[in-house]
Amino acid sequence: MNGLKTVMLLAALTALFMALGYTLGGPSGALIALLVAAGMNLFTFWNADKIVLKMHHAQEVDGRTAPEFFSIVQQLASRASLPMPKVYVIDSPHPNAFATGRNPENAAVAATTGLLSMLSREEIAGVMAHELAHVRNRDTLIMTMVATIAGAISMLANFGLFFRNGDDRGPGLAGILAVLVAPFAAMIVQMAISRTREYSADRSGGEISGNPRALASALRKIAGGAAHIPNPVAEHNPAAAQLYIVPTHVSELFSTHPATENRIAALEQMALEMGASPIAAAPASSGGVPSAPSPRGKTPRRSSALDPHRHH
């Protein structure tokens, strides 16, 4: 199914590029746009993950530079029967995380320093289990390509508007397209990304970590922080918000996640089915990754071990 969605996404991109090319340059402009779209489709397929990581200024870490975080991902990847992904840290106070890569063999997971300092070890494990579930479900290719392609569509439309503003005919149709292109790009995002994907990743993440209660607790904390702490990347490219475990509310047009409250309720129900206590009654130290010691959740996490600048 994700393969079909990817083909549909690339077809939609090509059609839009050709329409804009025709508006700017007639038949020859449409042909040039077709060639550009074909080249961009190929480039994006192979490099979208690198673009997204660079967009976030993510820095790769390992067992020496971020031992706690790397160990959590390593244990969870083993539980999920996945190849070990590359692990990145983003130096940002905005609490969030995402997975990227065209397949499990070329996957990467990333978390912000804001998330790592806000959550307990068990909650971080729950979040990363959710991201590894996206990798296992092969959601990451379509998610990553949407983030880069929708941004490119918006940039192309803005370029078209600027180009035609210098024309004696004025903005005309190009101006109208520039106004409509953001909703159209959003429609492509909605077409390509299903909200059921998040419920599936939540459930699979709860199974991988063995602690859906910790993931629910993490979602609650992340949602509170994400609503109040700015995210410059998502502000410049709203489609990037669909990558995150909890989206930033930059634009409702690009909303691809179900309500966080509904996700938490589903995880609470899953915890009860597994024989766990309700979230509110659970101590912070329960669950998580059993093979590693767990804090009580009262002491702030040490940021130094997870500082992305330590490996320089």
Cα-based radius of gyration, to the nearest Å: 21 Å
What portion of residues is helical? 55-70%
Shape: elongated
Count helical runs: 10
User: Helix-strand pattern, N to C?
Assistant: HEHEEEHHHHHHHH
Give the terminus-to-terminus CA distance.
41 Å
Order of strands side by side in the largest beta sheet? 1-2-4-3
- Protein structure class: mainly alpha
- Beta fraction: 5-15%
* Overall pLDDT: 77
Largest sheet: 4 strands, mixed
Could you give the count of β-strands? 4
Low-confidence stretches: 279-312
Characteristic terms for this protein:
312 residues; 10 helices; four-stranded mixed sheet; disordered C terminus; mainly alpha
List the helices and strands and how they pair.
Blueprint (H helix, E strand, L loop, with lengths): L1 H54 L3 E3 L5 H13 L6 E5 L6 E4 L7 E5 H6 L2 H16 L3 H26 L6 H21 L3 H14 L2 H15 L5 H5 L23 H14 L39
Parallel strand pairs: 2-4
Antiparallel strand pairs: 1-2, 3-4
Helix pairs in contact: 1-5, 1-6, 2-4, 4-7, 4-8, 5-6, 7-8, 7-10, 8-10
How would you explain this protein's 3D organization?
With 312 residues, this protein is mainly α. The protein contains 10 helices and 4 strands; from the N terminus they run αβαβββαααααααα. The chain has a 4-stranded mixed sheet, with helices on both faces. The longest helix is centred in the N-terminal third of the chain and has 54 residues. It is elongated. The C terminus is likely disordered.
